[in-house]
Amino acid sequence: HDASIKMSSSKSPVSPGVTTQHRVVYKVVLTGGPCAGKTTTLARLRTFFENLGWKVYAVPESATILLGGGVKFEGLSQEQQSKFQENILRTIMQVEQTFFDLADKDKQNCLVVCDRGTMDPSAFCSEEEWQEMLQANNWDSFMLRDDRYDQIIHMVTSAKGAEHFYQTRNNSVRNESIELAIERDSKAAQAWVGHPYCDVIDNSTDFENKIHRVIKAICIRLGKRLGVDVDDRLKAQSKKRKFLVKNIPPIEMFPPRYQDFDVQHDYIISPDSKIQSRIRKRGQKGCYTYTLTERRENYGEKMELLRQITKREYEVLLKRCDPNHHSIHKTRRCFHWQGHYFQLDIFKEPCTPLCQDLLFLETYTTQTSGNLELPEFMQIIEEVTDDYQYSMFNLSHRSISSLSSQTSVNQH
Q1: Dihedral sign computed on CA atoms, order 267, 270, 276, 277
Q2: Coil vs helix vs strand at 282
Q3: Containing H/E element for 113?
Q4: Which of 10, 32, 75, 179 could form a disulfide with 155 if both were Cys (CB 3.0 to 4.6 A apart)?
Q5: Contact 258, 334 (CB under 8 A)
Q6: For the segment 94-112, what is each residue's pLDDT rounded down to a tens digit?
Q7: Spatial contact of 348 and 328, defined as CB atoms under 8 Å apart
Q8: pLDDT at position 405, please?
Q9: Is the dihedral of CA 218, 224, 230, 234 positive or negative?
Q10: pLDDT over 60 at 11, yes or no
């Protein structure tokens, strides 16, 4: 597995949270049919690897950018479609190269996640048109497929095996029927046949575990180059455990390679009353990423859909803040201890009265209360994993004046 990882030729400074001796640049393609969950998965990948001290670059889907300019693919002539795919491929290569160059010069371990890659346009061409395109530009399939990326993750469209969840409203330029989605999913899978490290993530589990399997597949391929042990966190049965902490330990008590992030959460008014929406701003040293999270329930399954958004989108959504909720501000301290990955949320000003001096320790694990070894330098008050009064939704609500089960607000 490690042979597929492209490393810099010399040692470089190791960023906090990473124990590898050589800097790693790992390039992954997320591909698949429509409504496969790529957007939410990309956001989760970013959070997971950034918490480990990695730099994550997310390469946007070139086709969506171009189609968003008013192009109606079905209305193009065959000649126009072929030329359009050629130009999409050129765009993919140029946009990717921008991010590859940044990663190559970065001092941190880097994960570059591409929303579709250079072989995906072949799924929209005949074999004859594809070969003509390659010949005209002096390209070859090996260069575009095998020699360019470390790993391919094919996320199967929900139209195959999870039909109840199939919808295209999250992407304004996608409107495929279920039948067409299945056809395009199969063609996308075929396009990458031959890559030495290709993982197919189907719909045999619920959506949360589907995302989990993507993260796990990448970590398995990375192997020891990941730099940390995340085995327990990646098990399918792992659950987020939350503990109330009495006070902040002295800084010297923490493992030396911890990472601090500034985090702000805001609940916003959603156009759909059945969807709970919030935005997050998260970063270090003045550099931020922005996420939109939508929480809903479909056919009895609770789902959280995440999407990376731009700073401008974030600022627009911030104007739609729910007046019933305060903003939540905190420092998130990420660290490893005794083989487990922990996050300490330190709530800070400006904060609600409920959040004053509040501290939460969180981890993902399969272990039960009796078996989970918590940091010995922290004074744990109690576990609050399933205590709704300590949910962010409840803590931010303006109508709640004290922490008690009687005053918590119901959340879907």
Answers
A1: negative
A2: strand
A3: strand 110-115
A4: 32
A5: yes
A6: 999 999 999 999 999 999 9
A7: no
A8: 39
A9: positive
A10: no
